[in-house]
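Task card 7
Instruction: Convert sequence to structure tokens.
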Amino acid sequence: MGFAVTAISVGWVRALTEVYEITPTSSVSCKLRWTFAVSFPGLLGRLAPVVGRILPLIQSRLLNTLERVARERSTQPRE
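Output:
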């Protein structure tokens, strides 16, 4: 699944794209690959190399949270 935003009312982002690839690894687990790209206007655009080094850290934290939530929900009884 993927999507792209080419116009946005938020002034600090010019455009962004995200792609999610889910690959089954067994009958009860999978591998998620999350790729994104973002374009910033003005000063933020000039700071893109610095921001580009920070975004993978943020992405890693978000993916760790997603994994924790998925594990917690997978052990809950289903109705």
